[in-house]
Structures are given as C-alpha cells and as structure tokens.
Amino acid sequence: METGVGARIGVDIGGTFTDLVLSDGLGRTWFHKHASTPAQPERAVLTGIVDILQRADLRPDDLVEVLHGTTVGSNTLLQQNGARTGLITTKGFRDVLEIGRVRTPDMFDLQWNKPAPLVPRRLRREVTERIAADGSVVTPLDEDELCAVGADLMAAGVESIAICFINSFRNPDHERRADALLRQRLPGLAITASVNVLAEMREYERTSTAVVNAYVLPILQSYLQRLSDGLLAIGVHAPLLVGDSNGGLAAARTAQEKPVFFISSGRSAGVVGAARLGRVAGEEDIVVFDMGGTTASASLVQGGEISRANEYEFRAGISTPARFIKAGGYMMRVPTVDVAEVGSGGGSIAWIDDGGLLHVGPVSAGADPGPACYGLGGERATVSDANVVLGYLPGDLAGGGLHLDIDKARMVIERDLARPMNLSLEAAAFGVREVANANMARAIRAVSVERGIDPRDFTLAAFGGSGPVHACDLARSLDITRVMLPMMPGVFTALGMLTGDVERHFLTAMPGPLNDLNTAALEVAVTALRGQAEAALREENFTTEQMSYAFSLELRFEGQDSELPILLPDALDQVSLSWLRQQFLATYEAIYQYAADDAVEVVNLRLLARGARPGKLDFRDVSIADTDTPLRVAGGRKVYFGRGHGWLQTAVLDRRAFSGAAVGPMILESADSTVVVPPEGRVRGDGLGNLLIELTGETE
Amino acid sequence: MAMEIDPITFAVIKNGLDTIVDDMAYTVMRTARSPIVRDVLDYSATICDAQGRILAQAKTVALHLGAVPDAMAVVLDEYGDDLEPGDVIILNDPYAGGMHLPDIFMFKPIFHGDAVQGFAVVIAHHSDVGGRVPGSNASDSTEIFQEGLRIPPLKLYAAGQADRSLFALLRTNVRLPDMLIGDLQAQLATCNVGERAFVNLLEKHGGETLHHYFDALLDYGERLTRQAIRAWPNGRYCFTDYIDDDGFERGPIPIVCAIDVQDDHLEVDFEGSSPQVKGAINCTLSYTKSSTYLGIRCALGREVPNNAGVYRCITVTAAEGTILNPRMPAAVAARALTGYRVVDAVLGALAEIAPDRVMAAGEGGNTVVCFGGYEGDSQIPFILVDMINGAWGGRASKDGIEGVTNPSQNMSNMPVETLEARYPIRIEEYALRQDSCGPGEYRGGLGLVRQYRLLADEAVLQLRADRVKIPPYGLFGGGRAAPSRNILDPDGRAEALPGKLTRTLHGGDVIRHEQAGGGGYGDPLHRDPDAVGQDVADEKISRTFAAANFGVILLPDGFQPDRAATAACRQRLRLARI
After folding, report:
1. Less Cβ crowding at N or C end of chain A, within 10 Å?
2. Are residue A139 and residue A87 in the same domain, yes or no?
C-alpha cells in the first residue's frame, strides 16, 4: 500500500447488470453498466474493465487496484450449487446442523418448508472426542476414527469438509488437531475448522457458520482464481481486493480462505460509500436506503459510524426485518453491516388479498418479464407501473434504451387494483406507492427505532435505480426532513467499493464477571490481538502509520444472552471497571429505558483492525467524465402528488443541466435513475455532485 | 358514526402495529436473564386496545394469544376505573385470568391525554415461582396450593412507584429471586418499548382515527375468517385424541372435540372429554379456548391477522369440572400438555373439513425436563428448565418437518454449550431419532433424542412427557409414529421410566428422552420408493423399517429401490391388510 496515485476500478456484480466505476486518481470518474454473465461472472467483469479503460483512454497498467463486490457467495447459497460438503462433529451431535434453533418464521402455517441443510445427514459423521464446558478433556480425540471418517467422506465424493466439536470455543485442541490431520491425509480437500471462522459459544451458530464457509469455499476460491488469472491476461497487474459483508476490503486470498465473511460482499459497499460521502458532505447521521428491482434495503450510519451486527441469516427469499427469528435461513455469525431488507423494489407486484387488503411484493416481476410498462410480457401491476401512471417515471428512460408503455401500465392497475378496490386510477396507483413505502419504512425502522434510535434526526441517503424515485415520500413518512441523492445513484455501490478500507476482525473470549476483570489481563489480551492484527495487515503491505485499531469489550448483565459492545479508548489506562460499567449502563438504558443494578459480565474482546488505503475515493473532487449521451431537452409533464395536491404540472430536467436551487415539484432525469422532488421540497446541488432536498410541512 | 376507512392508511396502521410487537419481542430476547425466556423464547408480546381487544401479537408463543382476552377482562374488571399512567399490573393465578403459575402476565396501560388508549401485554415463563418442586411445573401436584405463589391481579408499580411489599413477597417465595426479578425487568422494558411506539402511533394518527382503524382491523380479521369458514361444508365433525395419563390414574384421558360448521361460524364443543383429574394437567377454560383458536387458525390461511376479530367467529364450550374447565383447587402446572392435545383433537376434526390445511399429529407437545438442586461446595441453587421440540406430522403434499417447534408455540432450543456452561449437566446426545416417524405417503418428521448426565451430587428430576402409551395419530391411511420413551442409564441398567415423573437423581445418572415422531399422512404404500431410498441413505429410517412399513426393498449395494421386489412386497402388505 505504498502508492496513493493511480487509477482504480470498483466493480459490483448485480443480478442484471455488472456495474463498474473507474476513477483515474485525478478526480475524473467514468461509469459503465455491462450485462451480467451469471454462468461465468468474471466475463462481464473483464470485458467491462476493458471497455471502461478504453473509454477513459487508460492502459491496464495505469490501474493500481481493482476493488470487487461479488454476489458469487450469496448466489451459491441462493442456488444451492456449492461444493459437496461433509461435516464432522462430536459423537452424538451430527444433527445439530439440521435441528437448528427449531423456530418457524411464521406462525399458524402448517405448510412451511424448512430449508434443507447444506450438508445432508449421510455426509455428516461423528467422531469420539469430548471437551467439557470448562475446556477440560472428557474423552480424547480418536485419531484413527477421524482419519477413517475423513477417508469415508472423500470416498463419498466430498470436496470440502467442516469440523465442529462441542465446546471447541473453550478448548480448540481437538479441532485444530483434526484440521491438521485431515489436511495431511486428504490433500486437495478444503477443510474448515469451526474455531478458525468463529471461536464463540453456541454449537448451532458455530456449526452453521463453518458449514457455510466450507460450502462456498471451493466455488469462491475458483471464481477469484479465474478472475485473477483473467486480470493478468488483460494486462492488469494491480492487486485484487474483495469487499466483505462488513463493508471492509481484504486481499482476494483472505476471501478464498474464509469466504463466509464475504457472502454479502457488494451490498455492504454501498453503505460504506454512503458513510464516506456523508463525512465529506458533513452528514454524520444517515439512513442509507438502497432500492433496486426486487428488494430494498436500509442501514444506519450514526456519528459517521456504520451500524453493524454480529450475525445474520441468509434466506432464500426475503430477509424480514424482525430480528429475533431464527429459522428458514443459513445462519452465519460473522460481522456484517446491519442491513434490513424487504421485498419491495421497482418490480414488486401489487395485489389484493381475500379480505380486500392491498399488498406489494414480495413477489417480483424481476427483469424478465419485468413490469407491465416494459412491454416485455409482464401482465401484473408493479411499483414501476404505478410510478409511470403517476408521471414519476418518463415515457422512455433517459438514453432512449427502453420505452415505457404508459397505456399498458394504466390498464393493469385499473384492472387489478382500482376496480376491485373501487378507487380512481391515480388513487390506486398512489396506494401502491404508499404501501411499498410503508414496507420499506419497516426496513428502516428495523435498523433505527428497533435500536432505540429516532430516524427523524437523520438524513436519508438514497441510491439504487429506484431509490431517488421514492426517497422523498419515504422520508416524509418517517418525518425525515433531509434527503441526499448522490451522483451516479444507479452505480453507487460500485463507487462505494472505491471508498473502503482494508479490515480484519479478531476476537478473544474473556468470560467472567466484570468485577473480576483484571486490567492488566485486559492489556495483555489487547496486546496479543494487536500483534495478530499487525502481522495480518503487514502481510497486506500496510505500514504501521496506515494501521488503526478499534477494540471493544462485549458486556451484558449476568445471565443475559445478548451483549453490547463498549468501545475501549486508545489509552487503556483510562479504562477502569467503574468506567466500563458506566458506559455499559448508559448504552443499555438508552436502548431499553431501564438499567438494573445487577452484576455485569464480560463475554469477548473484539478487535476491528483497519488498514487505511491511500488514494481511496473521498468524493471531494469527483466529476463524471461522461460525454456520450446528449443532454435532454427541458420540458414538463403532469405528475400526481397525492390527494392533497392532485395532478401538478411539473418541470422535467436533465440532472446534468441542473444547478443552483429550486422548489418542487420537479423531476430530474439521468441515465441511471430519476429524482422526484415533491411540491415544496427545496432541492439544491451541494458542489460535490449530490442533490440535497429539504422537506418541510406535512403533505401526503 | 362510521368513519370512512381508507385502504392505504389501513395498511400503514396494520404494519405499524406489527412492527410494535416485533420491537417488543426483540426487547424481551435481548434483556431477559433466564435461558427459558432468552434462549427457549417461552414468552409472548401483545398490544391490546383500550377495551382489551388484541390488535397484534408478535411471532412468539402462539398459545398465549387466546388466553390474553380472559386475562384482560380480569384486569379491566379489577382496575378498569383505577388506572394511572405508570401503573404496571401483574398476575399469574390460573383461577383469575392466568394459565399456570410460572407464566406471569404483565400489563401496562398506555395513556395519551387523560385516557387509557391501549395496553402493552407481555407474558413470560419464569424459571421458578416456588411451590413443591423446583421449576413450579410438576405434573404430579394435586392442588394449586402445591404449585407455587399465586398472584392475583396486583399493581407491581402504581403511578410509576414500585410496590416494595409485592417485590419483597415475590423474592421471598421463589427459589431464584434474582432471575425472577431480572425477567420481570425484561418484561417491564418490553412494556415500555411497546408504550413508546404505541404513543407514537397515536400522535401520528390521532386517537379517534386510530380507534376507528382498530375496529376496521378486527373486522378485517373477522371477514377473512368468515370467508374461509364459509368455504367449508356445513356439518358436525368429531375427533377424539388421548393423553396417556395424569401420572396417578391409568388413563387414557380422552379429549373429545366436535366442530359444528354453521355457514360462517364454528361451534366447538368438548362434550365427552375427561372429568378433571388429580394430576396437574387440568387446563383452564381460557387455555382451552386458546388452543382451539390456534388449531382453527392453522387451517385458515396465513393472511388472517393475529387479532380478536378471529374469535368472533368461534364459540368454544367445555363443561365445568372437566379437564378442559377445572374447578378450584385443581392443579394446572402442566396444562400445556392438555393444550397440545386439544390442538391435536381440533386438527383431527378439521382433517375432514380442510384436509389440505392440516397435518397428522406431531410429537404431542414439548417434553419438559427439569433439574433442580444445589451445586458445588457453596451449594448454589440451580434450576434447569429444558424443553425438547419436536416433529410435525405428514401433510397433504409433503413430509412432516423434523427438528421444529410445536406449532402451538414458537419456541427455540437451549444450545448445548449454553446449558453446559450454566448447569452441572452434560448433554451426551442431541439428535434425530431413527425410525420414529409415522409411515405415510408423506411421512411424519423424526422425533428427537436428548440425553443428560448429571454432574452434581444430587438433583431432583421432574420430567413431563406424553405419547408414551398412545402415539401420535396418522391421517388418511398414514401410520402412527413411534411412542416416546424415558430411559434411566441407557448404557447400563436401561430402566424404562414412566412418561411423567419426579425423582431424585445422583451424580453420574443418565437420563435419555426419545421423543415421538410425527404421524404419517396417506397410504405408506404410495410413497415414492426413491424418497424411501433417500431416507435410508440418510439413516433416518432403517432398511427394515422401509420394508415393513413402506414395502420398499432397496438394492443390497446401495439405496436404489429394487423395483420388482418392492412391487411384490407392497402387494404382500396390501393382501395382509384384508
């Protein structure tokens, strides 16, 4: 990490498009959308890179970094096409993975399908060994049995093996030994010992995390290998960094070893980008809102810090924001940006249930056939159809790529919604928007109100193709008064890749009462973790000055199961037991409105180590070097702004032609998205390419 | 005066209420102390309107839902005109709105302006409320006075001030006072979270508007329910299921359910069910109603909201003095078991009405395993309340699920590592139980095995299992599942224990529970032979079980069915039925 200058590319693979953003290090930026190639995702990346370099008139050698967000991990889980994986457990516990936490995501639904475990029972084997709860050995590891079981699994065709023993988080000796033995006896097989990905209590969570890692490992490994080889083949020698679920970056090699940390690779990059953009723009408290074709997600940046969680479940379908559900997904206990996702996107289908209630989603028309207005065979009313009927979306998308069929949109909304609900066409269409907004507001509440945080003091930063179309209405429904719409909202995630730091996570268990915590012992643990982190960052060529460390101590009331992280100050001598206790009580009370005077206990010491990338994009001096498409002629059309306003004649401008300030209603169109400024909304550019909209007064 | 109901505002308010109860449920989990609440999730969170009608319930223990209306009625009766901001009321007395003593209900009236606008309600299962047996959950008590501390509806806080006498009384009468108080605080935090969110909703929409929409919400629940019932054929449908015994008498104990479909209304009558029994499995009428609603609710479809509108369409009758409506001082601690069987009987009766909505009987309800004793040199008391769940029966187009909560609850399990870290017990096995499923075209789920070794010198074990004598039923030709078993020292003397027991164990004793699986659905001889082969490959069933129950013979060197041998075997089994 020596050089700060040079060109960098951020690449984000999505379902329909692979987005690329190129920054030349001198303030000029190009963006490019290339059709994704799901069978071999690296193909779109590589052709995309060649194309965008050509447009920027740069050579492959000018690149100093390639930063990548990939859906290979999540798609592998979604499509269940991971490696044939085996699992080795303590005798008596091979079914922990399948039993799970036994909850169901919905009540009263006897037709529920529990997802099949990633490793079927026939490939889950047991060995004789046992560690007690205090870490002592009850039964030694039977090494012969282990080797026999390993050979057996290999004969059954597994490519990858996960090992998880009961209480290994207390004493990892047996797991480490098994790991070493299997590597030695079964070269060529991928081996994941659970303590190497998660050294924490709770056997299901640890087993599942190890299994996801093992399941995805060969796939992600070979994908990143093909991508690295492909980059060399087109003359790119710059290092490849991959985004992790926590919004950090890591060398491709790390992603190849611990892929479970990289499952939500791309999604988190947008949040990191928004946080960094906020810092530059002076917005420290941001609700980050990303709305695409099938889902919308929300996340929180508070005081400049991204809100994070320590576990999540990957579901085939939609993650509901109800956070206490443990069912229906593949559990991963890894650090992740705390993102709530709901099934509301431009393609979400609107429908009426038997009781007459209007719903939007979670079924989506996707990109094919797409909304009815696309005219590609879609026959059902979607959010985008409602937006076309109401005048929010233009008759043809900027750039002329796609013509939107307004009559078709009107027809399906009239037929499927307005008539059955006995509403006017625009009331029905507006209703679709409002229900979709209510769903999306739920995702935002899940990451804010549920944490005891009031979103009203926040700025809503919206991106994704549909984000800027809904942002202002959504903000109003949550009483948020400031909306920020970044430049290039449609490829913002790829842009976000350019803004990240390298991050590594370390953890050590320190179970015991807080009152017994010895600050000297804490200091020893801190030093040990820092040593590990430093070695890891040094391996990625960071200098000491570029490294920074955030230690937190996870505390809870004795007997509880959920911890709160308390950030430790840099100078450990300021840390006293009473200080820690006070910090914990204050944090706890802020969330739950009470704090007990009970004993507090320590669970883990956690370290987030960062390597600051020189030359990362900071939004201060970015301009879109895109002259391909001609400016749109300014015009106007009628747009429906709810029962209070009705249809209003609304100015329509090319976003690139907008400068200064204006008062809505107004529509600003660009190649990748459409910005809707509602009546009385005051919009202005901020000199950094963002649009800021101030909302005042209550309207519908 | 009818206010116009705008469908959009309606949806927004409905989502708002669902979010409030989500927030509440999450708060309990984050703040509770006892593993039974924070790991097993034996609690529920509800928002009621000012009249005590349920508006929304979180996805927590389902069977608590139907008991809230009766409890609310008791609270309103007692305190309806005596409520102030900051009041918090608790109760647990089964004969005054409660279910069984460990479940403490907490109600916080929500004020806006001068008037009560609604209630935040949180029910949590406490680890111990005193009485004869640690855990206050024993099935072999014979009167309510043995079961623990009874709390009539009392103000724990009056206008924000804690009632110190009540707190002192609670602390003095339970085995683990800190844990009880800690969990009460979690309930209180949850009420506060619910209150804060509900007030926000009031401020946003205004009390009057909101209450009109609440009415509309309940009407909506009623409308969906009536629509579903109207599609069912009129007539009277009966089903009888059984509880093995009450731990005293021989049994079996019949639960007789008759559902009368009358256009868009259901009359559910339990005439013919057992008189109240000596053991603690008597079930209060409120819990009987709750269980009945739940069974019916499962057949209605997922869109039906969790609110009081649903109950308007269902009338439940159970004669006083029966196991489903006992008289004081009948013991009720293990009433959950009877609730499970009510659900099983209701689903059995519904099988004829809506065969594609029900399932064959599941495991019969969670098995409760309770260890209580003193640990180490300083003799620190411990009480483990562990619950084993479960398996679903086969369904009209798919197999039953294994490793799953009973649909009457929505509980979780206690991680083995959490359990071992906190209690002097080692878990030696936690696994699926081979061959425990009921055979069927769609087989039942496998039951679970959980094996405990006591590491302390001595402890009192209290175990409640059922389906030991009368295994879960199958439907439409599907077979019964394997019965449950309790075994002491399985690798040594292997003593078979009864289903329900309280006894002293000594250090090194091993208790093994093998849970019943789920019943089968449809003729097992119609099951896809390849599916049978897959189950054998996964060691979920044995080759012997496959041949005897499904008539499927696999090739000796793999898991492929031998088509000819299978056809012959099935033919033999068919002939043997005649």
Report:
1. C
2. yes
Residue A628: is its pLDDT beyond 70?
no
Domain harbouring A259, CATH code: 3.30.420.40
Residue B487's φ and ψ, nearest 5 degrees, are: -130, 135
Q: Which of A596, A611, A626 is the last residue of a domain?
A: A611
pLDDT digits (tens, 9 = 90+) for B90-99: 999 999 989 9
pLDDT 10s digits, A36-49: 787 888 999 999 99
Average pLDDT of every residue of chain B: 93
In this structure, are residues A335 and A312 in contact, taking their beta carbons and an 8 Å threshold? no
| Residues on chain A touching B188 (C-beta within 8 angstroms) | 594
Average pLDDT of the segment spanning B169-174:
96
Q: What is the pLDDT of residues B278-324, one digit of tens each?
A: 999 999 999 999 999 999 999 997 778 878 899 999 999 999 999 99
pLDDT band at A4 (very low <50, low <70, confident <90, very high): low
pLDDT at A361: 82
* Residue of B30, B306, B343, B399 to mutate, interface with A, max A Cβ within 10 Å: B30
Domain boundary among A611, A628, A658: A611
Tokens of A470: 């809904």
* Counted domains in chain A: 3
Q: What range does the domain containing A41 cover?
A: 7-77+221-265
Per the structure block, which two tokens stand in for B419? 């359990």
Residue type, B167: F
> Same domain for A83 and A22?
no
The reply to whether A124 falls in a domain is yes
Q: Do A450 and B31 touch (CB under 8 A)?
A: no
Cβ atoms A648, A639 nearer than 8 A = yes
| pLDDT tier at A670, thresholds 50, 70, 90 | confident
**Same-domain status, A590 and A532:** yes
Measured in degrees and rounded to the nearest 5, phi and psi for residue A675 equal -100, 125
Alpha carbon A677 to its chain centroid, in Å, reads: 27
Angle at which helices B68-79 and B285-300 cross, to 10°: 130
Whether B366 and chain A come into contact, CB under 8 Å, resolves to: no
Residue among A90, A95, A99, A102 with most chain B CBs within 10 A, to mutate: A102
Q: Are residues A179 and A233 in the same domain?
A: no
Interchain pair A439, B303: CB under 8 A: no
Q: Flag if A110 and B392 touch (Cβ within 8 Å).
A: yes
